[in-house]
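Researcher: Please translate sequence to structure tokens.
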Amino acid sequence: MRKFNLACIVDDDPTHVYITKRQVLMTGMVETIMICSNGKEAYDKMKAIMGAGETLPELILLDLNMPVWDGWQFLEEFIKIPVEQKIMIYLLTSSTSEEDLQKADSYNLTSNYLIKPITYDQLKQVFQESA
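Model: Translation complete:
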């Protein structure tokens, strides 16, 4: 399996950020983790990274329910950016709503829909799929 240079966790819940970051670090598959507390912050950081000519995160673990911009708002704006790099986006949420699952399907992210908290085994599977 290849190692990721940069992953991004977009979540407003400090407990879930801590758990997710810890699980990601335990895999040993990510060099650096960027944390954003909402979709707008994540979007602004991605735009700044692109503007600086740097590499975007190869993996984004995106919560759906957040203040400022939720995960859906982030996705709506992020898909408008012409990105040549391969980026894996996983919805990491506590929502088991059928409406959210259908919406995820419209973004072709149904198979990338994970329920919090993420486990070590789920993360290993994510990294295996990226290989």
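Researcher: Any highlights?
Model: The helical segments are 14-27, 39-51, 71-78, 98-106, 120-130.
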